[in-house]
């Protein structure tokens, strides 16, 4: 019993560690556009997001129940399986954070759980119908719906604001953007914080600490909310940079449209228990807003890398989860080996990240190349009036000087 209690405690701590990585990995979902447009200062934005994530964690348990009761057969799951699943999810979160790609923490968690469950109890322990209807279909539909809504909202905003005073309209949109960013943070808490609640509840059921089909205990809701809020406050600056500046250049109207559209999709999904990716929703909305402005472009080089990461998230986390489960199945020493590997890998990733620090002071700087579309547009766009370019030379020579200080001196060279 003592050994069992220890492994269950390890699982709970690891789950909260994942929730922490989820927080700083997904801060960009709520605040990237607000920071990039200057509506809020970076540190103020992440503090606001952290508080609202905590509040959102208490608003619903539908998504938590999808994880703890619907995705896998909870009767055949051991705490070690949950631990292995979390290892896969945490490592994928850290790797994608290192390279600044906004991948899905939700899919990393579910991929790790699916892989570990199959390695432990076989494919029959995974409920395929729930996987398809509440995970895979929302994964495809959410960015499309959010992107289309954001594109239409952006066009409507510019159409209605044609006759409005420019400065007054920009100020109004920035205010609206702050409100919509708060709504996204609240929505994130209702969806992503609950996934950790669900995984901890599943571990408690597997360990016999709570009865099957139980809702998350209050202490689980509180601890998960605090963990994701703390991670959010520290800020995943690398991903904020990609989401705010790497995908497209946003104006306040676009930021407001993107965040409002994403928040609507996330809240609706949380209400019906869809465990969608808030990252996919916000990324789709940002791209839709970029395309919705006349002359706006999307940096498809960045978007392509992001799409690849989305496609790899479930299988990559599942593979790591399955391998970790195979090792933990060897006994206590196997679990210890996996724990040491997780800690060492996390420390190594953090050390590598220190080579190029991204924080609140440089989050709005980006070295991302413009991409083919943007370069092509720039090539055919004439320079503004009065602009002097380095590669142009005068075609009419300057008039020769009529008066010289010394009549015997040769004429001055004419510069063209």
Describe the structure.
This protein has 416 residues and is an all-alpha fold. The chain has one domain (2-374). The protein has 14 helices and no strands. The longest helix has 41 residues, at 166-206. The N and C termini lie far apart (89 Å). Residues 367-396 and 401-405 have low confidence and may be disordered.
Concise summary:
The protein is mostly helical. Helix content is 70%, strand content 0%.
Chain-wise SSE layout:
Blueprint: H1 2-36, H2 42-56, H3 62-70, H4 79-98, H5 105-121, H6 128-160, H7 166-206, H8 218-234, H9 237-246, H10 252-272, H11 278-292, H12 300-328, H13 332-353, H14 372-380
Helix pairs in contact: 1-2, 1-4, 1-7, 1-8, 1-9, 1-11, 2-7, 2-8, 3-7, 4-5, 4-12, 4-13, 5-12, 6-10, 6-11, 7-8, 7-10, 10-11
Sheet with most strands: none
Q: What's the number of extended β-strand segments? A: 0
- The helix tally amounts to 14
Arithmetic mean pLDDT: 77
Number of domains: 1
Inertia-based shape: globular
Q: Catalogue the unreliable spans.
A: 367-396, 401-405
Distance between the termini: 89 Å
Over the alpha carbons, how many angstroms does the gyration radius reach?
Answer: 26 Å
Proportion of residues in extended strands: under 5%
- Along the chain, the helix and strand elements come as HHHHHHHHHHHHHH
